[in-house]
Design a protein that fits this description.
heterodimer, A: about 70 residues, alpha+beta, 5-stranded antiparallel beta sheet, 5 strands, B: about 350 residues, alpha/beta, Rossmann fold, 2 domains, 6-stranded mixed beta sheet, 5-stranded parallel beta sheet, 11 strands, binds iron/sulfur cluster
């Protein structure tokens, strides 16, 4: 039930947005996050739950180097 | 720099102390079972599934109340699909529907608005079940009901929060060495919510996404932080320390903490959320739905949900109890532990 999927905002209208999931376009509510066209978002139960941060390659490298430090 | 192969090699050859890592979230259980992660791990790493399927932990009296409402002439129950087949004390909502109950299945709670607009004489009750992930959706729905003065929609709530149940599990059971923390709960709450638990029980929490590679990285991190009070965020794409504060505020505006019953676990103090007093007009009678009858007395859901028993150790598993003929909630929902083990033929110890 806690499934949430990433999609891309196609357009925002009022309190809703049209979100594209690999070619499927679905309406989702925007009330929990401010979004604009082009944002990547996480959608749960017809609601945008969060914007996705672009994880820069650097951040991932940092995460992995932290793990490496454990070894 | 290390990569996925290094991580898998490490997890395979791990030869330290035996560790038990619990994944609390039903979606994690599903992803772990489906991707065959247990077969990649050394025998010393045990993954145990917890109580993180919201419909599985909903007590039977809640289902009974939904059925009672759906039988009324002027009332229609609206729900996610998962809820339909969960057994009440005698029948499920799906069985009641076969007997004429008014039940509609939707993809989003907001779909109730269209139904309500079309039939103003009918009261539509949403079966508001879920954890922190889904709570803001209900809060946003409440805001819309208020703003648009919708008077024929109500909620029957069975909302639950993760930290109190994790606390209860840790207090009851010594043998959990770390948690694969629920990623989509943390999107809302922020990963800071696990800090007090990590400190109290001196164990690591790894917040993870739901792809196999994300889970593997988190397991690696948890293993390395053995017995350290540490919360690690392995899902930075969407999880931050503070979480979605707008969502948290909205939840607080409409809901307040309440003691809640978890199927098979009894009452856990402050682990639920209910509509605040000033919104009681929107409540379809959610208080005190605390009774929890088993449909089949031999069902071991209580032990399965707390990680004390593997699903296949239940005497009914795969015999009297299958996804087509479920005897307990854990075999019904796709996120239920028994369902997940059964359809993936999972048998790790
Ligand atoms: S296998 Fe069926 S009867 Fe046994 S614990 Fe799971 S749901 Fe209950």
């Amino acid at each position: 039930m806690c499934v949430a999927l990433p999609g891309k905002v196609q357009k925002v209208f009022g309190q809703k947005a049209l979100v594209d999931f690999n070619g499927n376009q679905v309406e989702a509510r925007t009330g929990l996050v401010d979004v604009k066209t082009g944002d990547y978002v996480l959608v749960h139960a017809g609601c945008i739950l969060q914007k996705m941060n672009e994880i820069e390659a650097e951040q991932m490298t940092e995460l992995f180097s932290q793990l490496e430090a454990f070894r | 720099m290390m990569d996925r192969t290094d991580i898998i090699r490490y997890l395979q050859s791990y030869d330290g102390p035996e560790v038990s890592i619990m994944e609390v979230c039903g979606s994690h259980t599903g992803a772990i079972s489906k991707s065959g992660i247990p077969s990649l791990l050394s025998d010393k790493i045990h993954l145990i599934s917890g109580p993180g399927c919201p419909v599985c932990v909903t007590p039977s009296s809640y289902v009974d109340r939904l059925i009672e409402l759906s039988m009324r002439k002027d009332t229609c129950v609206v729900t996610f699909g998962d809820m339909l087949r969960i057994p009440g004390s005698t029948v499920s909502l799906a069985q009641a529907k076969g007997q004429g109950a008014h039940v509609e299945m939707v993809y989003s709670p907001f779909d109730i608005l269209k139904l309500a607009a079309k039939a103003p004489q009918t009261t539509f009750v949403f079966a508001a079940v879920g954890f922190e992930t889904t709570m803001p959706v209900y809060a946003l729905l409440m805001q819309t009901l208020e703003q648009e003065s919708v008077s024929n929609v109500k909620l029957l709530t069975a909302l639950k929060t993760m930290p109190p149940v994790i606390d209860t599990l840790c207090a009851q059971q010594a043998k959990i060495d770390g948690f694969l923390a629920p990623g989509h709960v943390a999107v809302v709450t922020g990963y800071k919510v696990f800090d007090p638990l990590a400190q109290t029980y001196k164990i690591p929490f790894g917040v993870a996404g739901f792809q196999a590679s994300q889970i593997l990285v988190a397991l690696y991190g948890i293993l390395h932080a053995y017995h350290q009070p540490k919360v690690m965020n392995f899902y930075p794409e969407v999880v931050t320390e503070a979480g979605n504060e707008k969502a948290q505020e909205l939840i607080d505006r409409y809901f307040e903490p309440v003691d809640a019953v978890w199927r098979g676990m009894g009452i856990i103090c402050g682990s639920g959320r209910q509509l605040r007093n000033q919104y009681s007009a929107f409540d379809a009678g959610s208080a005190n739905l605390n009774e929890d009858h088993k449909m089949n007395q031999k069902c071991c859901c209580d032990k399965v949900l707390t990680g004390k028993m593997r699903p296949y150790q239940c005497p009914l598993y795969g015999k009297a109890c299958t996804p087509l003929q479920p005897q307990g909630a854990c075999m019904v929902s796709e996120e239920g532990n028994c369902h997940s083990y059964f359809i993936n033929q999972r048998n790790d110890r």
